Amino acid sequence: xxxxxxxxxxxxxxxxxxxxxxxxxxxxxxxxxxxxxxxxxxxxxxxxxxxxxxxxxxxxxxxxxxxxxxxxxxxxxxxxxxxxxxxxxxxxxxxxxxxxxxxxxxxxxxxxxxxxxxxxxxxxxxxxxxxxxxxxxxxxxxxxxxxxxxxxxxxxxxxxxxxxxxxxxxxxxxxxxxxxxxxxxxxxxxxxxxxxxxxxxxxxxxxxxxxxxxxxxxxxxxxxxxxxxxxxxxxxxxxxxxxxxxxxxxxxxxxxxxxxxxxxxxxxxxxxxxxxxxxxxxxxxxxxxxxxxxxxxxxxxxxxxxxxxxxxxxxxxxxxxxxxxxxxxxxxxxxxxxxxxxxxxxxxxxxxxxxxxxxxxxxxxxxxxxxxxxxxxxxxxxxxxxxxxxxxxxxxxxxxxxxxxxxxxxxxxxxxxxxxxxxxxxxxxxxxxxxxxxxxxxxxxxxxxxxxxxxxxxxxxxxxxxxxxx
Amino acid sequence: xxxxxxxxxxxxxxxxxxxxxxxxxxxxxxxxxxxxxxxxxxxxxxxxxxxxxxxxxxxxxxxxxxxxxxxxxxxxxxxxxxxxxxxxxxxxxxxxxxxxxxxxxxxxxxxxxxxxxxxxxxxxxxxxxxxxxxxxxxxxxxxxxxxxxxxxxxxxxxxxxxxxxxxxxxxxxxxxxxxxxxxxxxxxxxxxxxxxxxxxxxxxxxxxxxxxxxxxxxxxxxxxxxxxxxxxxxxxxxxxxxxxxxxxxxxxxxxxxxxxxxxxxxxxxxxxxxxxxxxxxxxxxxxxxxx
Lengths: 470, 291
Description:
Shape of chain B: flat
Number of helices of chain B: 13
Number of domains of chain B: 1
Structural class of chain A: alpha/beta
Number of helices of chain A: 21
Largest sheet of chain A: 5 strands, mixed
Strand order of the largest sheet of chain A: 2-1-3-13-6
Distance between the termini of chain B: 13 Å
Radius of gyration of chain A: 26 Å
Number of strands of chain A: 15
Largest interface: A-B, 45 and 41 residues
Number of strands of chain B: 0
Strand content of chain B: under 5%
CATH topology of the largest domain in chain A: D-Maltodextrin-Binding Protein, domain 2
Oligomer: heterodimer
Strand content of chain A: 5-15%
Number of domains of chain A: 2
CATH class of the largest domain in chain A: Alpha Beta
């Protein structure tokens, strides 16, 4: 052993010397070689990040890319699609690129609080000139304008609008049980009626779950809460609660009363077994499928559900139907593109934003994507029975932003809400009394408002700023 | 191995590169993370004002932290013990059958696939109408039919089982190598003396593979402390908070809520918990090998 050791050591030394020689030699070559004759001209490129990778979405954004390529054929689109619904995976990536000082030329973001976080951090350039050039101020409704504008500047150009407050239902079950004849049009229901309908369905058809929900990714439950709070409390309570613009330290504040009643309603649904029992293992689309198959009767979810039903070719009026819930208010969310500070190709990014805000791109994108146009002067022929109604409501109903989808509130607070609400429902399903579970949820929400700095986040903004009253 | 002094210097020089890389990349980053954990970086904008231990106090006082900590401890125990002992027993049995290549392939396959794939697979297996419940119904074991990951009382254990399933192959490989390293003469002598299979296992094999425990146990404990992927893919910490773990909490805080300082604080807490395992292990191992 002792006699062989030196030989092995010499072998190591030999390897080390060779490796060092290669590394040092290589480095010296690159450092000392003659300079290349001329630096190549900077590549004309648009570096773009978005999260549209699923069927339908991808075709929609590709249609916008096609328009962009027609306008500036010399530019190469360097696309960075990062899969993951609502940007769950992309947001951390973008944030790190921005923090590292290597921003892309433009990236997808939800208008509202989510956009404001980037603005507050000083990562974005104003895009007022593009708004002016395209005349967007005249064709975009106030609430959507408000959530693109912080301080005195616009920071993003919206490409589409989705509605979050829709009650999807199975028309076959509704017909069989005579729901609409008995309880009226769902567009006019209040919270009490909704619970009554759920109980009625359970009594008549114990084999189906009246209300579908999906909590594997948690947010659909917060989404349900968002819609029910609006339904019960109206636009003012909606904005006050989600933006922390109320006296949240005082349990007697009227906003808490509305929140409590909605939490009790959700707790009652859980307690009486009115949700589908397998909700913790489902994602939003799997819950939508349960309504289509008649295993659940109703589902409160955004209008991307219509896109899903059309993609799987479900029969409208037989397997699915949707009602704005409530009809008189439109909770909106919008995808936007922006211009980061220090973007490598700002002129090309500006051209991209001009395309995004153009009537042509809005029409082509939205017809495929399943959303409606952000510009109200564009009136595409929507191929499905659902969107004409929602496009009309966008012009006629009151508007508020959707907190769960980045439009209002603050991401940290919404994330805590996901955990608080799923925890509450789980506790109730395990036998905890509704009242005590709701008490503890309210205490936790109070703590979360404080801890996440929600009220400070919206200091300087008023409730009216977010609401378009009609 | 006693080497002359100059060889030691050469050895040191050879190892300098990797040592520097690791020091700079790892230890400097740990120091940086520690500093961030004491800063007020709680938004998308980098902010490094020193605030002391406030973030730690905030994080530790939440319900999510307590639940995560308890879950991590359960995970550590319920994952490490079965994986280690099943690994040892299966390794022994595999060697006894003499068909090592075949069995090694079978058991290593689960270790080879990514946790994202395994997690998705198991979500379907565990579903109310999934493969597992269908199988139980077919076998007439109706009392076992349950919504495995929808039920908060079984979700955590269902997830722990997935990690056992994933790491078993690793444990088998290490023990197999250790058993095969035992001097054949000892085993043969025991067999000649009339030792049965069980006696052989407990009296000869077990004492001789102690060093394999030293590899397997700490690595499994560390894996349990930093478990993230299976939770992220399968439940996002749900139903409710029932499968929340520290690493997932850290991710939510840092990258979703953008409370970087709080996320860093949780990271440091995970590191300290790991050190509780690593330091006694390193001390014991160093004493054993060099002492």
